[in-house]
């Protein structure tokens, strides 16, 4: 017999059953209604449901069949008009036979499942298999040996699973020896691994360069867009896809006998798994990728370390530490928002929780090593959540909303790290501003100095030109003033063209003195007074030597010769010779005719 695809809905007075039965005869079907039992048969389909409320067969029932779609729709009256049937979307629990709710936990033969998985992989390439590998026969452990092993899985009801899966162990969980490691040892190893994995540079980079993270914080996942349910007050209307409904029908219905401590741990582990799921959905903006299986199991201490929690605060601290240690985006705001998202999912009702679990189940089912986590946790949660009371889910949501998580609770010294980073940032800004101000001052001072030097150079050049003009004027007056002018203001030597050039040190000396004194005493008097003072100083320093040969005269230097050669003036019959004191000049008369000298002076 084939279990058909079906869906349940309700009206105030009717229960509506939609069954997809293609390729069947419309005139050949049977319907059985008795209280909470409903059975439908149309060859080759058979459906048996255990309903959450009672229905009756009183002639008001009606049916419709769509041949094109192969859809059979049945309206069955409720025994109590206006009664609300809870959990009509929990298809797996509805398929359970009557009386199975109090059955003992289902015992499964693991070796059979392993053999089926091996049979499914027979079509793989045989070259990848090492036929010479050493084989060991697996022997079942006794009850005493199993009781000595550590428990894990949903409700801590599994043990010995990883003893047969050593190859897949490292790809699924981080713990090395789950069978021989106690819960306290797992927790200590987890905390040490998280402390070593924490990267201060990565955290600070996401803290100060949070452009992408701000976009993730604004993202609205699908559970924030749910509308309130018209059937269940306080819950949201959740619609399952055809694939999700098909998966619900495939689950084997089973019951779980959990003591109080195991139930409490099951609720806490459920919160831990949902926290990891909400972070992954937000970090990928609702689009799963190849890293999704790794992210979900890595952020959940339950899935990655087989952790068992004793309080809700421990769950939040564990999740917060792992978010700041492992994924791509490590920001505390994502931790806080994931807690808010999980509370929203729980507030939306167990149907919303079931949809999240089905999504996780699909992600792990399509990933080769992660399917083991479905067998250990997710499948059991998908079946168990359908049976729990909605009030417990709402109470858990209210408790989660009141819980708080601070950065110092994570024990990663985040506050100190952020304070140190901000201090360094402030110091760097101050140093950068100082360097900018210094560079601006240097540029302004260089521009001022360049303008000052240009002004001084232009001023000195203009003064030099004026002094040269005054010299020319003075010389012309001295040349026409007769012999008396020579006594007070001796003329500069004017060598004739027939005589070889002689040194004119007084000329260069007096010119240099004029420039220096002009620069220092420009503000004391006019230019003409300055020239008169210079003339008096030159008269004091110079003496006229008697008529003698110029044996003691110094040889002309190259610079003096060049200067003498370029001047167009005619020299008289005297040479200038430095005096023994304070660099005086000596006027030496050359061997020329005195008449010529007289004629020059007269002219």
What attributes does this structure have?
single chain, 603 residues, alpha+beta, four-stranded antiparallel beta sheet, three-stranded mixed beta sheet, 22 helices, 9 strands, 49% helix, disordered C terminus
Could you characterize the architecture of this molecule?
By secondary structure, the chain is of the alpha+beta class. It is 49% helix and 10% strand. The protein is built from 22 helices and 9 strands. A 4-stranded antiparallel β-sheet has the order 1-2-6-5. β5 and β6 form a beta hairpin. The longest helix is centred in the last third of the chain and has 66 residues.
Strand content: 5-15%
Kindly report how far apart the N and C termini lie: 151 Å
Contiguous low-pLDDT stretches (5 residues minimum) are: 99-139, 473-509, 544-575, 583-594, 596-603
Question: What overall geometry do the principal axes of the alpha carbons give?
Answer: elongated
Number of E strands = 9
Using only C-alpha atoms, the radius of gyration works out to 54 Å
**Helical content (DSSP H or I, runs of 4+):** 40-55%
Helix/strand class: alpha+beta
Mean of residue pLDDT? Answer: 74
Spatial order of strands in the largest sheet: 1-2-6-5
Supply the number of helical segments: 22
Biggest sheet layout: 4 strands, antiparallel
What's a concise summary of this model?
With 603 residues, the protein is an alpha+beta fold.
Blueprint of the fold:
Blueprint: E1 5-10, E2 14-20, E3 30-42, E4 45-55, E5 62-66, E6 71-77, H1 91-94, H2 110-120, H3 143-148, H4 166-172, H5 183-197, H6 200-208, H7 211-218, H8 242-250, H9 260-283, H10 292-299, H11 301-305, H12 312-323, H13 332-347, H14 350-365, H15 371-384, H16 390-402, H17 414-479, H18 484-488, H19 505-520, H20 527-541, E7 542-544, H21 558-566, E8 574-578, E9 585-589, H22 594-602
Parallel strand pairs: 7-9
Antiparallel strand pairs: 1-2, 2-6, 3-4, 5-6, 8-9
Helix pairs in contact: 9-10, 9-12, 9-13, 12-13, 13-16, 14-15, 17-19, 19-20
């Amino acid at each position: 017999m084939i279990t058909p695809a079906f869906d349940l809905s309700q009206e105030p007075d009717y229960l509506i059953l939609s069954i997809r039965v293609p390729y069947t005869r419309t005139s050949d079907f049977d319907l059985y209604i008795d209280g909470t039992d409903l059975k439908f048969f149309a060859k080759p389909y058979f459906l048996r449901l255990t309903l959450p409320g009672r229905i009756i067969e009183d002639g008001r029932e009606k049916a419709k069949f769509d041949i094109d779609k192969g859809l059979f729709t049945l309206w069955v009256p409720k025994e109590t008009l206006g009664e609300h049937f809870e959990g009509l979307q929990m298809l797996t629990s509805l398929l359970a036979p009557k009386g199975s709710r109090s059955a003992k936990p289902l015992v499964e033969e693991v070796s059979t499942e392993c053999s089926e998985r091996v049979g499914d992989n027979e079509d793989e390439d045989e070259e990848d298999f090492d036929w010479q590998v050493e084989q060991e026969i697996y022997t079942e452990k006794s009850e005493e040996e199993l009781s000595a092993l550590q428990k894990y899985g949903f409700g801590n009801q599994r043990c010995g699973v990883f003893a047969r899966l050593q190859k897949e162990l490292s790809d699924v969980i981080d713990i090395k020896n789950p069978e021989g490691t106690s819960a306290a040892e797992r927790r200590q190893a987890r905390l040490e691994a998280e402390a070593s994995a924490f990267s201060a540079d990565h955290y600070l980079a996401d803290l100060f360069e949070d452009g992408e993270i701000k976009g993730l914080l604004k993202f609205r996942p699908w559970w924030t867009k749910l509308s309130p349910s018209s059937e269940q007050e306080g819950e949201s209307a959740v619609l399952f896809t055809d694939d999700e409904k098909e998966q619900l029908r495939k689950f084997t219905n089973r019951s779980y006998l959990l003591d109080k401590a195991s139930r409490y741990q099951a609720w806490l582990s459920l919160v831990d798994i949902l926290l990891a799921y909400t972070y992954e959905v937000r970090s990928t903006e609702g689009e799963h990728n190849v890293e999704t299986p790794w992210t979900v199991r890595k952020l959940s201490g339950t899935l990655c370390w087989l952790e068992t929690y004793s309080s809700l605060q421990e769950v939040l601290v564990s999740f917060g530490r792992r978010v700041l240690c492992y994924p791509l985006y490590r920001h505390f705001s994502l931790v806080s928002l994931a807690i808010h998202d999980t509370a929203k999912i729980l507030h939306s009702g167990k149907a919303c929780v079931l949809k999240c679990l089905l999504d996780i189940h699909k992600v792990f089912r399509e990933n080769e090593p992660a399917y083991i986590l479905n067998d250990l946790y997710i499948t059991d949660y998908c079946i168990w959540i359908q049976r729990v009371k909605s009030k417990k889910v709402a109470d858990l949501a209210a408790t989660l909303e009141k819980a708080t998580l601070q950065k110092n609770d994570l024990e990663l010294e985040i506050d100190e790290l952020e304070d140190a980073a901000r201090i360094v940032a402030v110091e760097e800004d101050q140093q950068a501003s100082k360097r900018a101000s210094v560079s601006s001052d240097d540029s302004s001072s260089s521009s001022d100095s360049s303008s000052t030097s240009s002004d001084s150079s232009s001023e000195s050049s203009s003064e030099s030109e004026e002094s040269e003009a005054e010299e020319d004027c003075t010389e012309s007056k001295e040349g026409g003033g007769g012999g008396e002018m020579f006594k007070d203001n001796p003329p500069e030597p004017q060598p004739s063209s027939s005589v070889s050039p002689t040194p004119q040190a007084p000329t260069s000396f007096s010119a240099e003195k004029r420039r220096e004194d002009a620069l220092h005493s420009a503000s004391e008097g006019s230019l003409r007074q300055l020239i008169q003072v210079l003339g008096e100083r030159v008269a004091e320093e110079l003496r006229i030597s008697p008529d003698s040969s110029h044996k003691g005269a110094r040889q002309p230097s190259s610079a003096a010769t060049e200067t003498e050669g370029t001047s167009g003036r005619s020299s008289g019959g005297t040479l200038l010779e430095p005096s023994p004191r304070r660099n005086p000049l000596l006027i030496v008369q050359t061997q020329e005719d005195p008449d010529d000298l007289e004629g020059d002076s007269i002219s």
